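Minutes, project check-in
Item: structure for the 266-residue chain
Input as provided by the requester:
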Amino acid sequence: MQTSDSRIHKPYYRNGPSHRDGADVSFQDIVKIFGFRTVTIGKWVTAIEQQIAANLFFDALCDLMDILQVPEAVISLNGSLSLAFGSGGRKHSSAHYESHTKKLALAKNAGGGALAHEWFHAFDHYICNKLFVQVSHEQFASQCWLHDKSQIPHSLNEKLSRCFESIFLATDKCQPNEYVNRSAQADKLLKAYYYARPQELVARAFEACIQDHHVKNAFLVQGTKQSPEAKLGIYPEKELRTTISKNLLDYFYHLGHAMDKSKNFK
């Protein structure tokens, strides 16, 4: 009964190339190939569900690697990121990133489609001390950018800063843009501070970028266009959406190119 109703058993649309040639992979394969630190599987996840999830994770992470044009080490954040499936969930949350443990967790039945969003939270956290001078382990790059922290001079950091600028600021580079204002308005309606938090703004902008790519994967990302949340106006729209996507893809392309030359992501 529960198995037939489980979301993990229902197909997730994808149109990308075959990464497994029809073969099954395991979570241990994923750890080995991408270099993740650890993986945790919940005790209520059946063997069948674990196999389905491993294949979905693998295809989605390979698709993300192809979209961003980066090597495996970027996806695992240089081996610092851990994965969890059906384990350590939070109430009312289908997925989350734990900064203190550097763990990305997806719920068994509701986590599909949230992988890109949570991965960017992890990236935002990981890249903070590579982008800024003297930051704490708890901080995110998006927060520090808004607080005008001193940046470490580097061409890649300039490109990432340009990404944040397009996500947060209007063309005058002084006022918040329409995306930020709509997100703040959504928070006002809901009487909460969530959608306008800097780390949430950048993660949703990244989601939109990934969903707009011609490589589609509904386990990786979904809901940035037609979902109830999208109808609230909490995703970038129109020309701004295009500009943000262009900046993000340019940054990751050059990050991947730099890594191919140096074989290093630190």
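Outcome recorded: The chain is about 50% helix and 5% strand.
No further action items on this chain.
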